[in-house]
Fold this protein.
Amino acid sequence: MLRRFLRINKTKDSGVSERFGIVLFLLPTIILIGVYIIYPIIMSFWLSLYEWDGISPTKQFVKFKNWVDLLNDSVFWHSLTNNIKIIILSLLIQIPLAILIAVIIDRGGKRFDIFKSLFYLPMLMSSVAIGVLFKYVYDPQFGLISAILNLLHLENLAKDWLGDPSIALYSVIAVICWQYIPFYMIFFIAAISNIPQELYEAAKIDGATQTQYFWKIEIPLLLPSIKTACILSLIGSLKYFDLIYVMTEGGPAGATELMATYMYKSAFASFKMGYGSTIASAMFIIITTAGIIAYFATRQKEA
Amino acid sequence: MKSFKKWVALFLVFAFALSVCLASLNAQKAYSSATSSGTKKIVFWHIQTNEDAKKVIQRSVDRFMAANRGVKVEVVPLQNDAFKTKLKIAMGANQAPDVFPTWGGGQFYEYIKSGKVKDITAYMNEKNYKNRFLDGAISMVTFDNKIWAVPVENVAIAIILYNKEIFKKYNLKVPSTYDELLNIVKTLKAKGIAPFALANKTKWPGSMFYMYLVDRLGGPSVFERAANRKGGSFEDPVFIKAGEMLQELVRLGAFAKGYNGLDYDTGQSRMLLYAGKAAMELMGSWEISVIKSENKKFYDNNLDFFPFPAIKGGKGDPNNVVGTLGDNFYAISSRCKYPKEAFKMIQYLIDDQAVKERIQLGRIPPVKGVKLNDSKLQKLSSIISKAKHVQLWYDQYLPPQLAEVHKDTCQALFGLTMTPKAAVQKMEKTAKAVFGK
């Protein structure tokens, strides 16, 4: 990647000082990536070969025992399944809704500018704050949702949102959508504003309706952005952690356990640093593979 | 213009590098004890986040600093569950605070085995200082015949707190047997009041029911034999029976809706008590002081408590309790540069003035011969003095990995997603893996 970058610049201007400048400016990033990303990844893989409690000075080399354990660990597979559920529901809910909101706001023109800011607000809050907030919203006795349902005399619909293992995951996914739809919305608004005005005008002359605008112009021209959004959502869903940890800690009874929460608990609560590193490494492999597959799958279609 | 841009860019790079350096310097400062301009610095973590309790600690530390001019103490209050992880990471990174709280038990022993904790036996024996504390409390932090921490905060046992107004209204009597408790549960349920408030997101609050059921059914030896691998097993019928009784309670609707998702740290279970939506809560007796500072009116008019009742035919002595004789001991890290000063500071935390202030809070300090004027504390004290055995919380007693499985299986029992039999099998399997037998 770096070499390609340098070569491109070399053809433009091969001055030595220029190249020195490039290296100089890249240096902080390279060091930071090396120290905070590459080194920890290598260390995780290295640690995954050990049994270690995370505090004692001695580690025990156990070769691939942790990896064999991982393959036989039903909790890990269960949490991976939960991750996949989040991916699917995120793709099905977040992206279509975000496109819809983006299109509506775009049609509204200047009058709707205020909604851009309003809808973007959730994105500005930290996940931890959102988690705490929704813990109260979901509270089965005093929560906002229960209160509204009571007002509407729909008490029967009130559920134990975070405490019932069969619905806890969906309650959390709803919050994730609430948090991330604004991000994709802004993303799509930017993409829509790039669509040349002439296309609309041409379509107008041909007598196209609003629906036809949407399906025949906006959606096809948004496709590259949609693909990017899908990849972002895929990777984000696989490494999801903070909100889930604040809201449910992976509970009740493992119902919302994700790979990342399971890794965290193994390493820092059960004192199994080696096993935690194994999960982290497995996550790295899974996410990288998924990312690469998604990248190439979408690139081929573009060509 | 171009050179101007270059300068700006260079400046930005420089500023960035500088800030990274400064940030790492700061991080260093926040953890370890560093000497600056001749003063000795002690970093002290605690988890007394309740406003009044926080003030008591700060006042003790201020007294210490006034008497020891050359020492500066940095007090860092942390939330209970966040603290547990943070300490682990700090220990692993060799950045442990100089003074930190502990409950004793298996988790603490891990740190001792790894050489992270300072042996304070010599300090404790000086002028027979250890004699100031309850013998049971000292024994909870004695490992390998050495003392590793000072009992400070509270004698805390799990009790059933209840709203006496609600009991009076429905003509309910404090139960002495488990069957009577079940009848109360049924009556309250029929009146539309949740019998128990429970915030089991972090899993340890629910574990209290399980511990008491095991204790009342089989006595303390069942757990001890299983946990210490002395001829016992977690597949003992008592553990299965306790799981079944727990699920019976769940099926009876003994717990207010949401119990497995509510958060104890943010007070979601106490709110149910205050609002009169739930009548009882099984919780550590520290909750008395929490309620006293949080809701004085409820404390004065509604709050009362009773010990976990006896189970008919059970082998356990109903006078026994689950809890700890020093809810929060303070230990000194082996990295601490000024252990003598740190120990002296801990002594200020539990000197006569601090003892007086802790009683004011509604706590029983783990020192001998405390005088309690408050009727609630007197009652609590009499429950404790009758106990022949104090069972330390399983999640602190067991080695960490097993403790996590205990909490997980317990929450699954509450969620009815696991059978009592499967739960004990999982415990036994993990125990075998952890202990190698």
Observations:
- The mean pLDDT of chain B is 90.
- The interface with chain A takes residues 9, 13, 16-17, 84-85, 88-89, 91-92, 110-111, 113-116, 200-203, 256-263, 266, 268, 271-272, 275, 277, 399-401, 404, 408, 411-412, 414-415, 417-418 of chain B (CB under 8 Å).
